[in-house]
Amino acid sequence: IWAMLPSADDAEALHDFVRTHALQALVIADAGPSAPMPSLREAAEAAGLPPWAIHVVEFGDEAFSAEEGNALREHAKALCAAKVERALASQEVPLDSLKPKALRLDAAFSRRDLLRSLAQVRYEVVPRVQAPRCKGRHGCTSCLKACPLDALAIPNGHAVIDKARCDGCGFCVKACPAGAIEYATFSPGQIDAELRGLLHPAIHLAPRIVAFVCHGTTVPAISEVLPLPLACVGMVSPGLIARAFDLGVIDGLVNGVG
User: Fold this and answer.
1) Of 99 and 257, which is predicted with more confidence?
2) Virtual CA dihedral for 153, 157, 159, 162, nearest 10 degrees?
3) Alpha-helix runs per DSSP H in 110-187
4) I want to staple 47 with a disulfide (CB 3.0 to 4.6 A). Which of 18, 158, 219, 244 is the partner?
5) What is the reported pTM?
6) CB neighbours of residue 221 within 10 Å
């Protein structure tokens, strides 16, 4: 866990911290304005951590009144606990789950930045099919029907994901009745671990509302609302909502809709 007062040397110090302790995962909490989050991420990646092993605590705009000091503290504790639990539940990412990430050219690049980006291939994680568990040979097409991008096919009795088409939404994971589709960065174990962190009984925040949101979504700073990012809110199942209530949530939001 990396949590400290921000300084201009944070990125270099973080790089050394990751290398010294041979970390397999990292939680960055409250980096502060003087140490931009991209520079901290880049420092952690340069030290050898893959992007999916770096978990960032998002505090939003910190739009809390002075009277909400206790709620703010408990809110921050819940978010940190969730990311720590998620990091502890991380699993190895198989090579066939990695998809080369396309270089974005919608912004100005210097020649040096362009060459550096081309030299360092970046990857993103997408779902993969565990062929022995797939029921495609028995006529099941649930994942094909669920995929909005037609990124799945069943050529030899089991589903195959076209990684070039797949954007990692995770719809197929939820749709597969045999649990044959694995998503290494959004596995049921990781999602459940993060949910348990948000709703840990040692955190004194009431009421607690879990907001299931798409990964990368900015959530307004409301002390009672605890975001749980998924690849896409299409991954939310009745079982996941029931699990949240079982752990003590009073309300659940899906992409801002109750």
Assistant:
1) 99
2) -50
3) 111-119, 142-146, 171-175
4) 18
5) 0.81
6) 15
What is the residue whose two structure tokens read 């770096």?
54
CA dihedral 63, 28, 50, 119 (to 10 degrees): 70
Q: What is the dihedral of CA 251, 82, 240, 135, to 10 degrees?
A: 160
Query: Tokens 């949240």 belong to which residue?
Result: 244
* Tokens 């699990």 -> residue: 243
Per-residue pLDDT tens over the stretch 19-51: 999 999 999 886 565 566 678 888 899 999 999
Q: Is there a cis peptide before residue 207, judged by omega within 30 degrees of 0?
A: yes
Question: Longest Cα pair distance anywhere in the chain, in angstroms?
Answer: 62
Average of per-residue pLDDT across 126-141: 95
Which tokens sit at 69? 């000091």
In the numeric block, the tokens 């912004």 are attached to: 107
Residue 54 contacts residue 26 (beta carbons within 8 Å): yes
For tokens 């990430």, the residue is: 101
> What is the distance, to the nearest Å, from the Cα of residue 244 to the centroid of all Cα atoms in its chain?
18
Does 4 have pLDDT greater than 80? no
